[in-house]
Amino acid sequence: xxxxxxxxxxxxxxxxxxxxxxxxxxxxxxxxxxxxxxxxxxxxxxxxxxxxxxxxxxxxxxxxxxxxxxxxxxxxxxxxxxxxxxxxxxxxxxxxxxxxxxxxxxxxxxxxxxxxxxxxxxxxxxxxxxxxxxxxxxxxxxxxxxxxxxxxxxxxxxxxxxxxxxxxxxxxxxxxxxxxxxxxxxxxxxxxxxxxxxxxxxxxxxxxxxxxxxxxxxxxxxxxxxxxxxxxxxxxxxxxxxxxxxxxxxxxxxxxxxxxxxxxxxxxxxxxxxxxxxxxxxxxxxxxxxxxxxxxxxxxxxxxxxxxxxxxxxxxxxxxxxxxxxxx
Amino acid sequence: xxxxxxxxxxxxxxxxxxxxxxxxxxxxxxxxxxxxxxxxxxxxxxxxxxxxxxxxxxxxxxxxxxxxxxxxxxxxxxxxxxxxxxxxxxxxxxxxxxxxxxxxxxxxxxxxxxxxxxxxxxxxxxxxxxxxxxxxxxxxxxxxxxxxxxxxxxxxxxxxxxxxxxxxxxxxxxxxxxxxxxxxxxxxxxxxxxxxxxxxxxxxxxxxxxxxxxxxxxxxxxxxxxxxxxxxxxxxxxxxxxxxxxxxxxxxxxxxxxxxxxxxxxxxxxxxxxxxxxxxxxxxxxxxxxxxxxxxxxxxxxxxxxxxxxxxxxxxxxxxxxxxxxxx
Lengths: 328, 328
Hints:
The first copy, chain A, is an alpha/beta fold.
């Protein structure tokens, strides 16, 4: 029997989930929930109802797993515990510092309702996290490095758009090639923030805005830009839309470590992603973990989990026998 | 309380386990078992007994996990089920085609004795396998590529040494750089065996042996060499020992796949290892999974498992709270 998936929130992520569910041989989309007027939301899958989130309660028992596609700032801290009271849920909560608090809230709600909630699913947190954990366990005497990009940082783009005189902007985070190479060569470099990433900004000014002042404000912005080598390009809105609407992203996780009686042997573990569409890759990960949520719940488990708590085999639609015969 | 580790078989792998256990803050070496006369076996850790394997039974209940460090051809198929009757066990069984049979044998023995047996732990099978499973689950519409090297293949070196007139030999498996680049660029190439790897052989001849005949026999050997571009170098035994005694190895696992309504987005997942010491890295993985075996057993689980059945958090000595706060 197919795993019945619900989508809560229909933006880039919600649409990505819809596409990934189509691709999964063992899943079907049951319903899409939105805060908007359902009549205004057009989805890609024919015959699937679009409902207002207020109706979600009526769907309890009819959906195996709801994938919550809201934002980490304000949506998920409320929605994930709330819907864990009705369904098994998955989210992509990515505010690293607030994960322990979010975990506790979802855990309490899910245990009360005997559901499974899997939080912080995606690539970072997500696939990058589990690679850090595997590599740390294997090479206890070592160093971790994470690089992001090249890709658009939503947070940094938003920060530029808040500057007076800026009409629109996109910011790319770019790993420094020489730093990547030094890590890959096992040199264990000590890298400052500035040595790891550069930042490249494409900015559309409002009419009459002072370019020099905007550039200075960007480059001196604490936390976001002042610790980085930042390049600012002023372009037209037409150019921005034409050349900078892509959602490509990616990154690298390394662990370098030593073994041997005299620590004479070096090892480099590298995991990297090169993604044409950040939201579609994230939702592909969410959908794989939806399969795991259903199975864990069928086994009688409940409460909050992360990618660190779930065995790889739970993500695959293949049986243990098939996996051992073909992928082990 | 420390996890008490036993080592069964004291060669390159056994010594690697001993070194990795020293590095683990939560483990101690309890005993080493050998088929040789224990008096002839000198180990690195002071105060730890070396026993004959025939005495293993007396240690039941005094060791948490035994790591079985024999070979896949003849040792492990016998030893892993045998010792699973006494201890939780880990092995690095790497004959891919015989994994289902080995799994069944270990599963039966471990279930009977209420122990946990984790088989085929290392990097391939092992870390490469779980990367294949994660990546397949995330990108169902895609292609897998595994490259090995540069590193010595024991099987191919042995095959050369069996040729008449060969005194000693080492064979390196080398991934073809242009093939790696094409995969990394998301080109989804169809690659023949010859296009993926080359083979480089360093051969010491016995006195009076016919170099041309040996080279021809190597290059035409079916399965091992005939499908590859193979280079043969004849060198002295002194050169072989001086320049080719290293145990470096490594490799690459890729999955490239597409997402999007019209499959318009490409993604590349890459995992790679660059290892100075193949046996020491393998044993570092074995030791991390020994931690998992102890925990699974403490939870009341039993039977045979592989790396695909075990959640990443079980490998770490850190608590769930610590992992969520620092590595997620």
